[in-house]
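step 4 of 6: structure.
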Amino acid sequence: MTPHSLLRSRVFRLTVISTLVFAAIAAGVVALLYRSSTEAVSRQIDATIEAEIAGLAEQYAQLGTTGLVNVIKRRASLAGRTGGIYLLASADRRPIAGNLNRWPDAEPGDKGWIRFAIRDTAGSRTRIHHARGRVFRLRNGLWLLVGHDTGEQTRIAELVENRLLWAGVIAVGLAVAFGALLSWLILRRIDAITATSREIMAGDLSRRIPAARGGDEFDRLAQSLNAMLDQNEQLFRGLQEVAQNIAHDLRSPLGRLRARLERLLADSLTDEQKGALTEEAIAEADRLLRTFAAILSIAQAESGAPKRGFGPVDLTVLIADLAELYGPLAEDVGMTLSADADGAPLVVSGDRDLLFQACVNLVDNALKYARDGKRLDIRLRRDGAEAAIEIRDRGPGIPAESLGKAKDRFYRVETSRTTEGSGLGLSLADAVARLHEGALELTDNRPGLAAILRLPRSDSQGLPQSENRGLARTGTEGLDTAAGNSDKQGPERNQLGGDA
Amino acid sequence: MRVLVIEDDPETASYVANGLREAGHMVEVAETGRLGLIKAVSDDYDVAVVDRMLPEVDGKTIVESIRASGRSVPILFLSAMAEVRHRVEGLRAGADDYLTKPFAFSELLARVEALGRRGGDLHSETTLKVSDLEMDLLARTVSRGGESVELLPREFKLLEYLMRHAGQVVTRTMLLENVWDYHFDPQTNVIDVHISRLRQKIDRGFDRPLLQTVRGAGYMLRDPA
């Protein structure tokens, strides 16, 4: 850690500031204590002075001026021990008796209290003492000063101030050292996180932040960051896999397309053969385009963008339309399609076309892979706050070990590889379910596959059902407008429903 | 028909224009939105094909401006945006139909022709007639050669759409959108099954089939005579 980075460190600055604040508080407390104790000493001195004055006044009253002079002389001789200061001066303030060689220059203040300095010459050294006293004018015109040396008090004050200054210097030093230590301890952890994130940004997705098990808040942060990184890495790998799958799955149809176009160049072909080849090529290109459209639809559903166009959709109508559209096709491939939805409206908030697409994909799967099962049962069920669309076939089903992967993009059960299909149908149905805050469940129908599309119901919240496009058009009777108009009005109505 | 194509991508523009010309239409191409808008409001066209993403003035604004100028020319909106939201936006702006890129040319042609011949008040009609096939829209009955034909409600609607577009190619997507009112990708030949059932009911036993399959495009109902 360089001094520069230390100064920029928030931890360092905070530690220094907080240590200084505490030092200032401590200094304040000490100053307060010091002041109150000096005041106590001052009061004591004042009390001593008052007591001496009282004593002297008594002597003066009893023994007169001579007695007072004697007492002052006696007391002045003891002044070395008591610190007392006495001076009796004439009316023109010339000393008569006492231990002060001249009357102080300072002017007495309130009630004759006075502060003054004493020059104490001992040998070559001159010391200045501070003193405090009280001045009286006696009845006979003499001046009396009774005081006390406060030099001791001043010395203590100087000593304390000196110590406090040192304590301050030490506190600042400690604050800086403490700040540096704390910063180092904390920055060490943060730097580890920073370094790891840099490495990850540089491309090494497997890097993780070192974290002790169950430790402090940094460990918890590291653990949750690591969990996020795990998830990101997984998503990224998934994306990579999808990209690889797209490349892999689209290579063969593109190859076939290319081969057909190449054969078209051959001279020996009859017009009829050329026509057939062209049609095959177009069909191949259409399949490719459909695959891309499905990939885009999945991406769109996953982005959540279609949510803005959501409106109430009556699943009862949707299932009836589904059965009506696919019934004849099922019959043609030798299956019986039965739709079971009790007549009452079952409304979800969603995109009618995407929901229909999801159901169509599930039905398509059954028609493709479960023909041998003969039966395809579509059921719409109320399940508490959910609506469940069940599409059950009696075909070969999906092996248990593949059920988890079946919804992955481009995943195809090994045995179905020979059947035409993109491996995107279930992925799209799953993405549509998740877009509607629902889920697609794949389970074993014993035998066959049960695909259950669960969607949260919205009809309990009282949506305006009359605006619903699905509801407005019950059966075929509702749609008696001209075809040209209906293709304009259909989506309009949907949008109105969505806005409602 | 006179068709105005407002499309900035030269390749798509010439692909569309050449195809429409081959089908016997007169085509004018505008490469920018500004130019297209000027042409659309200053001249009469039977159909306008408008790309959504255009330089200068975008497709949605063009459609809105054409409608604001009081012109009722049918508009087909072209866009790479397949989302329902965008389709609704385009139709709301005043477009009559919407086609997502990439598209098969047969799909575009069928839609342009369907739009171009839509003129006239369709609602006032009470009967439709193609050769000896007759539909009574009020009684909701159908007869061929005087003999009554029993249709399911959806079959009736399917036939109505085909009869209204008699002599025109109608694609499978157009049928899904207009007869079933769903915009989705069926992946299977689900429409073909319905057509063949309808064909069984209206053409079976008659020498001249009316409902024909147009290879690589869709279906057409027409008087073979």
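step 5 of 6: annotate
 - Chain B is about 40% helix and 20% strand.
 - The longest strand of chain B covers residues 2-6.
step 6 of 6: archive
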